[in-house]
């Protein structure tokens, strides 16, 4: 009797819980889905009319719909000035790009940081198979601050700030003026089936830049650009990167770090990645001199290098500017618990593995397992390795010979 009574009580509780859950779901999904077509708000796909206000009106109406909203951008070419799509929305939001969105060529028309932005949105989906065209050629001559003292700040193509529980997939971004996608203060974002491209000589055109964000997944993506394919800045935690092809570009980078005190990057997993003709492969970079910060629990595995200049690279003397005094100063960024596993292919420089750690804060618990990199260049001879201030261990195949 007692067990039957307990089961009965449990059944009633489950029924009540189910009804409460369904009521909560109906708050967002009980209403029928509704399509908000930008053409109904006056958008014109003529490759010249500024459609910013039409898009914004469509978004505002969709954001107020208590259900599943789909903002639809049909096929065609739409010019857009800078705009930000802001929450908090009353239901789920899907931003469907079937057409081509074009940025103005004139950089002066932009908010300095963003072309298309999403702010304070939960449950956002961006998809559709369409294109974002940043028309960046007009900006690139003024975008390289390492060479041009009069350089300007140019906008990210698509920026996500305080966006949570969201997906970005099947979107193409070409010729960004600056970074293609930038995530800041985001949580639980899944990015997949993206195609990001800009010429190899386009400065600062990072593919995906991540800062102060957690639980980010990037997969099945091709990135061809002029800077880092993926860059993880301070506050990047629990980042999972898989099945990515990178090149041209500067590789997948953690950092640079150490400009501010207390910066942190941890829990990075990069696997099943191919680098083709990139400047770097997998890289951790910190400024010297720098302030105290931490990089920890980093895992690089199953990575194929094809003619990469610096396949495996820890650089704690990073300084792209000629005014730095890194040779006389040490980084204060602590790097610990880093593993490089099953990395193979060809290096375009003789030093295929370079671990340049800080003299004052050496790298600790660095592991090398099954490394097989050969030199493919004009100077002949085998690939070599270079290590300084590294505490760690090696296992399995080690070519070039281990230097830890």
Which structural traits does this protein have?
disordered N terminus; 50% strand; mainly beta; 404 residues; 10% helix; 2 helices
Commentary on this structure:
The chain is mainly β and 404 residues long. The protein has two helices and 27 strands. The protein has helices spanning 2-29, 52-64; strands at residues 31-37, 67-73, 77-79, 83-86, 92-97, 100-102, 114-119, 124-127, 131-133, 156-161, 164-174, 181-184, 187-197, 208-211, 214-224, 230-232, 237-246, 252-257, 264-276, 280-287, 293-308, 310-318, 333-347, 351-356, 363-375, 384-388, 390-399. The protein has a 16-stranded parallel β-sheet that branches. An eleven-stranded parallel β-sheet has the order 4-7-10-12-14-16-18-20-22-24-26. It starts with a helix and ends in a 5-residue tail after the last strand.
Topology (elements, then pairings):
Elements: H1 2-29, E1 31-37, H2 52-64, E2 67-73, E3 77-79, E4 83-86, E5 92-97, E6 100-102, E7 114-119, E8 124-127, E9 131-133, E10 156-161, E11 164-174, E12 181-184, E13 187-197, E14 208-211, E15 214-224, E16 230-232, E17 237-246, E18 252-257, E19 264-276, E20 280-287, E21 293-308, E22 310-318, E23 333-347, E24 351-356, E25 363-375, E26 384-388, E27 390-399
Parallel strand pairs: 1-2, 2-5, 3-6, 4-7, 5-8, 6-9, 7-10, 8-11, 9-11, 10-12, 11-13, 12-14, 13-15, 14-16, 15-17, 16-18, 17-19, 18-20, 19-21, 20-22, 21-23, 22-24, 23-25, 24-26, 25-27
């Amino acid at each position: 009797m007692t067990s039957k009574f307990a089961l009965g009580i449990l059944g009633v509780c489950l029924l009540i819980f189910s009804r409460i859950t369904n009521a909560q779901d109906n708050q967002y999904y009980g209403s029928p889905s509704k399509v908000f077509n930008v053409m109904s708000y006056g958008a014109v796909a003529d490759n010249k009319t500024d459609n910013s206000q039409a898009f914004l009106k469509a978004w505002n109406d969709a954001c107020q719909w208590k259900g599943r909203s789909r903002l639809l951008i049909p096929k065609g070419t739409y010019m857009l000035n800078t705009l930000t799509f802001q929450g908090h929305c009353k239901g789920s939001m899907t931003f469907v790009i079937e057409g081509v969105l074009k940025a103005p060529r004139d950089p002066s028309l932009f908010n300095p940081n963003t072309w298309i932005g999403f702010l304070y949105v939960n449950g956002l989906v961006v998809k559709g198979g369409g294109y974002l065209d940043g028309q960046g050629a007009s900006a690139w001559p003024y975008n390289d601050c390492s060479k041009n003292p009069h350089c300007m700040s140019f906008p990210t193509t698509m920026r996500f700030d305080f966006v949570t529980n969201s997906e970005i997939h099947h979107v193409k971004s070409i010729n960004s003026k600056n970074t293609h996608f930038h995530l800041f203060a985001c949580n639980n974002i899944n990015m997949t089936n993206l195609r990001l491209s800009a010429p190899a000589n386009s400065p600062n055109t990072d593919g995906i830049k991540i800062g102060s964000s957690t639980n980010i997944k990037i997969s099945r993506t091709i990135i061809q650009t002029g800077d880092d394919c993926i860059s993880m800045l301070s506050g990047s935690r629990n980042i999972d990167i898989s099945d990515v092809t990178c090149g041209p570009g500067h590789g997948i980078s953690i950092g640079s770090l150490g400009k501010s005190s207390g910066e942190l990057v941890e829990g990075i997993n990069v696997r099943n990645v191919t680098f083709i003709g990139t400047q770097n492969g997998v890289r951790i970079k910190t400024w010297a001199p720098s302030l105290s910060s931490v990089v920890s629990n980093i895992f690089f595995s199953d990575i194929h290098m094809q003619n990469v200049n610096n396949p495996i690279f820890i650089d704690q003397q990073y300084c792209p500017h000629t005014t730095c005094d890194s040779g006389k100063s040490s980084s204060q960024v602590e790097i610990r618990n880093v593993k490089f596993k099953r990395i193979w292919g060809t290096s375009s420089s003789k030093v295929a593995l370079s671990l340049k750690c800080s003299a004052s804060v050496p790298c600790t618990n660095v592991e090398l397992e099954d490394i097989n990199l050969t030199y493919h260049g004009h100077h002949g001879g085998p690939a070599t390795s270079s290590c300084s201030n590294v505490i760690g261990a090696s296992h399995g195949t080690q070519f070039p010979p281990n230097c830890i």
